[in-house]
User: Fold this.
Amino acid sequence: MLDTLETDTTVPGSRSIDAIPAAAGIGLRAAHYDDFLAMAPEVAWVEVHSENLFAAGGKVHRVMEQVRRDYPLSLHGVGLSLGSADPLNLDHLRQLKRVIQHYAPGLVSEHLCWISVGGRYLHDLFPLPGTESMLAHLVPRIQQVQEVLGCQILIENVSAYLRFSGDALPEWAMLNTLAEKTGCGLLVDINNLFVSSRNQHFDPLVYLANLHREAVREIHLAGFSVEEVEGTTVLIDTHSCPVWPEVWDLYARSLRMFDHRVPTLIEWDSDLPTIDILLGEAAEAQRLLENTHG
Assistant:
């Protein structure tokens, strides 16, 4: 049973949770570990992929122990496959729970997507149809995940390139309902929103205006790539370059729609730059946060 997953009695359990500050942070990747520890940069907080901490021991845990000592830490997952028709992966949940118990993160997040079918995992985050039946599928799964983990999770919008023919609900309505019915928080990836809006031809400001912004506890920013597919321009969510000017503009506009500061993260997952470039992106996000909300 989900609610009887064993807790890990080997972790100390005495670490207090450091809340994620309403400021700019960075996603920390393995290629930057040494430089990050050597520089000890004045960045407000750090986010890492939960699954990278599932295996015991090794450099990643040695680094994270020091990072967790010096910075508020957020965990961002890619493997729960909340929208899959497969049962929830109990082993994955068990490992995630142990990581949460050990590191006591300020935030825990996952994606509104599916990545597995028949027990086989794919290497991408696939969008979900906007339907009442999908909501009925997601609500108990998110409730179960939060019950098992013992904490709220944030649900993030993923990039999409096509619409489902059966879509009856816009994504913002799906996220609003999930927040209302499960108590989950929301993570708005402004880059993903911009990519989806261009590919699917909708207004991202209408999306943001209708979203339950009081439920938004984190924002992501990243870069995208542009490809031509059979004469059509398609934006691809690659996280492989600086934040585009159009995404910075949408971020600045979104900040003015919130009545509070929202913790904002710079994500960069491939073609990684030097860490000073990543920190420069975070500094720009911090500048925009302060310009809007002081």
About this structure: The mean pLDDT is 94. The chain has nine helices and twelve strands. Residues 275-293 form the longest helix (19 residues). The two ends are 47 Å apart (CA to CA).
